[in-house]
Write a structure and sequence with these properties.
Length: about 270
């Protein structure tokens, strides 16, 4: 019976018109296509889901990095190391630290990290941070000659840092002939200084040697006295009252001078 059934089916198959055969073959191909497209849709969803997950993870990491960079760039963080307290005081007494009428404040990282590129900035920030932490933990920082260290300013200050804020420096100094000529020579590359018996192109700190830390030498002289006792618990988020008093005194003197000049004219 089985042999007869096979013969019958093969006869019937051969008897089918060509149009019917083509229709059946097309239907089978459509079924295969549908099954393949279903698999493609599933694969796309998996890829999209994984991509979305990595995107969220990347955004979270970027946010954490941005917050960490910001929170570790200012005086509150940097002066948490005991050895940096004299530098913090001198900084708070300087124009760059917010002392003055302009209200401008440059963060520590604005001056002490390069600004040529984001990658260079982050790499140097990591290197500097590791070096400072290791030094603070393993070295006797009170025996470091900090005044001598100031002469190494070329190693921890960058022209790109200065020009990051002072973008229009040359034009801004035009009214002051002396400053304009000095900066013009600097920007043209003609301003040279001697470093280790060699003539090299000048950096900003070769002329502006003590910028950013007002009378730091006097603060360094206090190491071993006030910085060991009272100053150890110094609250860095409090106003700099000494600087405020000095500013108020200058403003009062200016007002008296203006009143005197006004009275003379009348």
């Amino acid at each position: 019976m089985n042999g007869e059934e096979k013969k019958t089916s093969s006869v019937e198959e051969s008897a089918k018109p060509d149009e019917i055969k083509k229709t059946e073959e097309t239907g089978m191909k459509m079924d295969d296509t549908c099954s393949n497209s279903g698999g493609s849709k599933l694969s796309f969803k998996v890829v999209a889901g994984i991509g979305g997950l990595f995107l969220v993870i990347g955004l979270v990491i970027s946010y954490i990095t941005a917050v960490a960079v910001k929170e570790t760039s200012g005086v509150n963080f940097c002066s948490s190391c005991h050895s940096m307290k004299p530098m913090a005081t001198a900084y708070l007494n300087s124009v760059h630290g917010g002392f003055g009428e302009s209200g401008f404040v440059a963060q520590c990282a604005d001056c002490h990290l390069p600004h040529e590129s984001l990658i260079g900035y982050l790499v140097q920030k990591a290197r500097t941070g590791i070096h400072d932490v290791v030094t603070e933990v393993t070295a006797d920082t009170f025996n470091i000659d900090w005044k001598e260290k100031r002469e190494e300013r070329r190693n921890f200050l960058y022209d790109s840092s200065c020009l990051h804020c002072h973008e229009n420096l040359l034009r801004a100094t035009k009214p002051n002939k002396k400053a304009y000529l000095a900066h013009k020579a600097y920007f043209s590359g003609k301003l040279k200084v001697e470093v280790e018996h060699k003539k090299v192109q000048a950096m900003c700190v070769d002329c502006h040697k003590y910028v950013g830390h007002y009378e730091l030498g006097k603060e360094l002289d206090k190491i071993g006295t006030v910085y060991d006792e009272d100053y150890y618990n110094y609250k860095r988020d409090k106003p700099n009252y000494a600087a405020e008093e000095e500013l108020a005194s200058k403003q009062a003197e200016k007002k008296v001078a203006e009143e005197e000049a006004h009275n003379e004219h009348h």
